[in-house]
Amino acid sequence: MGPIDLVRRAALVAAIGFAALVAPVAGAQHFMVGAGKCADCHKAETAVWEASKHATSFKDIHRKPEVKDIIAAVGGNTNMRRNEVCTACHYSNTQASASAAPSATSGPSCESCHGKASGWISLHSDYGAGAKRETESPTHKAERIRKAAAAGMIWPSNLYDVAENCLSCHGMGRADVPAETIAKMVAAGHPAGSSFELVRYSQGTVRHRFYPPDVTKNAQMSVAELSRVFLTGHAAAFVQTSAATGKSTNPKFQQTLDQIKSAARAAIDGVKGQVPEAAALLARPTEENAKKFVNALASKDLSSQVGPKLPAPSTYK
Prior knowledge:
The protein is mostly helical. It has a domain at about 155-315. Helices cover about 50% and strands about 0% of the residues.
């Protein structure tokens, strides 16, 4: 788990023919450049972030009384801002250059969700010679999107990747932290993640949907769109909890996994009649099957089936 920073390069870049332009130096590691680099072009989005808990928690999260016990369970540096397990989710560890030491300069920010930007930020903001976003050609835009994704950017349109990334911090499993460590953190008072649901957590204080034709409006999703988000979040959770099951003997850890997985299974099973790919995901909860399921949702309006299950806006975080 953890913000997704694996570079999608060689095969994809070669396939789209931009290897000479976007392939990083072999072995190069991408790093966070900081929210300030995004703010110049994304002022409205930055304003939303600055008012969110992702940004404001930076000021006092290390002062919470339970932090000492949680860090003791994690092990490592006793300073939360220097503990690698803590900083992976609670801070943005930015660098001035690839060789510079990382520093926790803010709370979770743009790159925590969209990927470490050193490899893609210049690609993402290149609209073509002499062009602006409003005048960019459709062909160049398609190429720009592909190139930035190949360099590690997680686009909002890649909904499964977004969900998977959210769960990397809000869920119960991550590849770089042993399950027993997570279990000890939960036992020491760290939130277990069982309350996370993608619609509730993405459509509240963190929502930043400033899209054409009106880029001044923070657009709300339709019920059909929310239904796809709801099912996508549960698909990612089902894969994650299935992979983590049995990796810790801690009863609370397993109980929480079972709770999350049960809710996910019920959500996916509820649309099995309309989405045949649901059956394969339930039988074999892999990322491949989950993405097939999510891709199948794009052509369907499941408002009548899922709408009644959506969280009330009053419960949005």
